[in-house]
TrEMBL record:
Binding locations of 5-phospho-alpha-D-ribose 1-diphosphate: 128-132
Molecular function (Gene Ontology), one example: xanthine phosphoribosyltransferase activity
Keyword Cytoplasm included in the entry's annotation: yes
CDD domains: PRTases_typeI
Record's function text: Converts the preformed base xanthine, a product of nucleic acid breakdown, to xanthosine 5'-monophosphate (XMP), so it can be reused for RNA or DNA synthesis.
Protein name (record): Xanthine phosphoribosyltransferase
Residues given in the record as xanthine binding sites: 20, 27, 156
Organism (species): Ornithinibacillus halotolerans
EC numbers for this chain: 2.4.2.22
């Protein structure tokens, strides 16, 4: 997706060989027009998949997910990372290890909003080692729902998550795949 690649190139900051900061449009300040285009792109990719629900994780997955939900006309559920006083009944939980924060969190989703008759599209901002997506897959499984696939805004193709998921037969659609990055240059995978 060219608009996204342009935003990454112009506004992204490579913090190390492995970490990209995109606070200017995705992780802190949000670019609504870009988010809308991202939503349209996901909706187009998954329009024939019978999606009934989008599942993401707070907080940075929410913006692209809500835009995709708007386009597909389906509700968006976000997994919570912190225990909530009101989220107490029929919880589906999974553990995920955060790549950027180096900590393990239990994520939870209420069974009320994810059920066995759902066909789910998982959306997240980044795909690195695949921990976050695996946690969400785990929750889809626990709900006995059907997984249609995964939509990722930025995949770091030099980390193992995307390849491992695809090898397992999971449909993974990433709008930009970074093959390598350094302070001066970000190289995208072409024509994937
Ligand atoms: P994974 O679970 O695939 O290893 O990592 C994905 C999660 O870690 C995403 O939800 C995202 O929040 C965070 N993440 C991983 N790599 C990066 C990165 O390079 N930049 C930013 N901003 N977040 C990342």
């Amino acid at each position: 997706m060219n608009l996204l690649k342009q935003a990454i190139t112009e506004k992204g900051k490579v913090l190390s060989d492995e970490v990209l900061k995109v606070d200017a449009f995705l992780n802190h300040q949000l670019d609504p027009e870009l988010m809308q285009q991202i939503g349209k792109e996901f909706a187009d990719l998954y329009k024939d998949a019978g999606i009934t629900k989008i599942l993401t994780i707070e907080s940075s997955g929410i913006a692209p997910a809500i835009m995709a939900g708007l386009e597909l006309g389906v509700p968006v559920v976000f997994a919570r990372k912190r225990k909530s006083l009101t989220l107490v009944d029929s919880l589906l939980t999974a553990n995920i290890h955060s790549f950027t924060k180096n900590e393990t969190n239990e994520i939870s989703v209420s069974n009320d909003y994810l059920q066995e008759n759902d066909t789910v599209l998982i959306i997240d901002d980044f795909l690195a080692n695949g921990q976050a997506v695996r946690g969400l897959l785990n929750i889809v499984e626990k709900a006995n729902a059907t997984l249609a696939g995964v939509g990722i805004v930025i995949e770091k193709g030099f980390q193992a998550g995307g390849d491992l998921l695809r090898e397992q037969g999971v449909r993974v659609e990433s709008l930009a795949i970074i093959d390598s990055m350094s302070e001066n240059k970000i190289t995208f995978r072409e024509e994937f």
